[in-house]
Amino acid sequence: MDETRRVVDVAYRDLPFDTGRVYVVANEHGDMHTYSLTPCQGDTHICGGTGRVGHVERTPDYFVVTGAYRDRTFYLSPGGDGYLTWRGVDRDLAWN
Q1: Torsion angles phi and psi, residue 84, rounded to 5
Q2: Pick the CATH number of 2-95 from 2.60.40, 2.40.128, 2.40.50, 2.30.30
Q3: pTM flag (> 0.90)
Q4: Where are the domains of the chain?
Q5: Are 50 and 69 in contact (CB under 8 A)?
Q6: How far is Cα 79 from Cα 84, in angstroms, rounded to an integer?
Q7: Secondary structure of 3-70 in HEC code, one letter for each residue
Q8: pLDDT tens by residue, 41-95
Q9: Contact 60, 77 (CB under 8 A)
């Protein structure tokens, strides 16, 4: 069942970074925060809006971005959702 869902995700849903920059919104400690994640350095890395250079790894279910923002790991799934890990706590997010 998971494999079928993944095939549908790739075929019919938006994938992170397909059209370049991704904007993320997430609730952290009661406030809404926004982030931009941009492919950089020949599309081999992801740069955060603060100028930090991070990495992206594709897993079966997520595009995992680390290092673009301090203490934050972004898990972006096809279709515009996912979660953010910040200080050991998972927070829902939306991206476009």
Answers
A1: -120, 130
A2: 2.40.128
A3: no
A4: 2-95
A5: yes
A6: 16
A7: HHHHHHHHHHCCCCCCCCCEEEEEEECCEEEEEEEEEECCCCEEEECCCCEEEEEECCCCEEEECCCC
A8: 988 899 999 999 999 999 999 999 999 999 999 999 999 999 999 989 999 999 9
A9: no
